[in-house]
Amino acid sequence: MALSNPPLPDAFQTSIKAQALFIRAFIHFELKRVFNNIPYITEDVDPVTVVNTTDAWPLIEDDLKYAVANLPESQADVGRATKYAAKAVLARVYMFQKKWNEAKKELDDIISSGKYELMPNFDDNFLAAKRNNKESVFEIQYSVNDGASGSPNAGWGQSLNFPQDVDGMGTCCGFFQPTQNLVNAFIVDPVTGLPFLDADTLANFKNDMNVASNEFFAQDTVTPVDPRLDWTVGRRGVPYLDWGVMRGKDWIRDQANGGPYVYKKNMFMKKDKGTLSTTTGWATGVNSNSYRAIRYSHILLWRAEVAVESSPADLEYAAQLVNMIRQRAGNHVLMGRCRMFQMATTQDIIAPKIDWSVPAANYLVNPYPVPFTSPEQARKAIRHEIRLEFAMEGHRFFDLVRWGIAGKTLNMYITQDRNFRSLLGGVKPAVFENKNEYWPLPQTQLDLQPGVLTQNPGY
Amino acid sequence: MKKNIIFSTLAVGLLIAFLIGCSDDFLNTQPTSSLSDVVLANEKGVNALLIGAYAAIDGQTRGAAGASWAGCVTNWVWGEVASDNATKGSDLRTSLLSTL
For A69-86, how does the pLDDT look when each residue is reduced to its tens digit (9 = 90+)? Predict the structure, then answer.
């Protein structure tokens, strides 16, 4: 900036620097969670010479502290980092290091600012039409039909994750399918209206694995489930937003490989096709829906976790925060009970068989009795709530590692899933070892920087 | 006659080429495939660079398909497929690894 004539105003320089350091910290935090031992690249060094044996946490914290001190509370342009976005990432960084008191301060600042609120409905967080709402703390922005050739500003990173062009969606490619294990986590105790915190011991929720679409299959509409299930998972016999009823196996690219469910969060609505999604190119499913990287519900559930982990534990406040999330979850249930059990090939034939006055399933979600009865119960309840609220939003694996339960949880899941997805039958089961909490550094990168980068332990 | 026309056309052409070539502006031409300090060293230029940095957050290195999928900021690969919530899905022939 020294080159500028006349020099740029100090306030402008500080604003740019604070935003740039926020971005630098955000990206290194991503890298840190995946690889753990990372080089921290600053502006005054040759990037290829930076070793990955220096602890990156203090460097990430320093950048975020500068951002917190110098960013404004709100920005005129949507998408730019604010003071509270920086505080939220900093709180998250503290939580990964179990610095509970430091995290508490940042989260309390965000809550007491009064700038954020939960949206009325859980699904508001996934609709393209409701981007940048009052629940949003930091959002990654996309746009389509903006005049740029080839839609380079659309959400290409998720372009594979929608159903493989069925029923006129024009989407691609059937990747990113929810597991049976996740579906089971949404089952609710009919007596208490609370989830089963040891869901792995439950029998599988009824599913259409290995059932052709034109064969008879009746969904379980008796067992109570958390309403967030049907905003998170696309499953047979249940309306898929406004695209009609999910027709089971015909909607799945390879059920034996991926299971019977499809991705649903962040899918765009049929009524928005062509306005909020692209109209040209090989993947017309790419769209302008933002990724809500941090929303206010994160802040509340992280604060609940901090309340239990810091000393002395506040089991009352923790339960109140979790109940705010559960209360909102019950506000909006998916309507439309499908009475067709052998799926037709077109929605025109299915439509008359849907009763729109009845919920699609037996939805139930009750608050926890306040306070939580013990730190152990509170910890399990909060971890389960974080899974239900944010499933398919990119946090689960990192949370499992952070909680120190990745090995136990994933080995149980692998055993269960191997018996479920038929393609995996007979395949030697993978075992999750401690070293797998972090990925190995790519060999290509190690080869490019011999003597600079060190491979992670165990690889 | 025909020859004269050819020669005079050539002469005019050469004259134009000579006049253009005479300028030494080309010695100072700014590179067109990258932005120079002159373009960037002001508020508008610095802000444009910052927006470029924001664009990097989503992990879409090519602005479109290709390297974007695995590096997507939504962490659908590293945060979810690696966990008990999701599978890679699709079919086996379309190995995600082949796109990395």
Answer: 999 999 999 999 999 999
Judge: A257–B91 Cβ closer than 8 Å, yes or no. yes
Helices A83-96 and A296-309 meet at what angle, rounded to 10? 40
**Using CB atoms, which residue from A160, A176, A398 is nearest to B86?**
A176
Rounded average pLDDT over A298-308: 98
Q: What is the pTM of this model?
A: 0.91
Give the span between the Cα atoms of A167 and A234, in whole angstroms.
Answer: 14
Q: Is the dihedral of CA A74, A78, A81, A87 positive or negative?
A: positive
Closest chain A residue by Cα to residue B60: A157
What is the greatest pairwise CA distance in chain A?
75
Tokens, residue A290: 């933002």
Contact (Cβ atoms closer than 8 angstroms) between residue A237 and residue A245? yes
In angstroms, the separation between the Cα of residue A3 and the nearest Cα of chain B is 6
- How does DSSP classify residue A271? G
Q: What's the burial of A296, exposed, middle or buried (CB within 10 Å: 0-12/13-18/19+)? A: buried
Q: Which residue matches tokens 């067992």?
A: A223
Among the residue ranges A202-206, A285-289, A314-318, B61-65, the one predicted with the least confidence is B61-65
Could you tell me the pLDDT band of residue B32, with boundaries at 50, 70 and 90?
low
- For chains A and B, count residue pairs whose Cβ atoms are closer than 8 Å: 174
DSSP 8-state secondary structure symbol assigned to residue A244:
-
Q: Which of B78, B92, B59, B10 is nearest to A140 (CA)?
A: B59
Q: Which residues 202-231 of chain A have a CB within 8 Å of chain B?
A: none
- Tokens found for residue B51: 């927006």
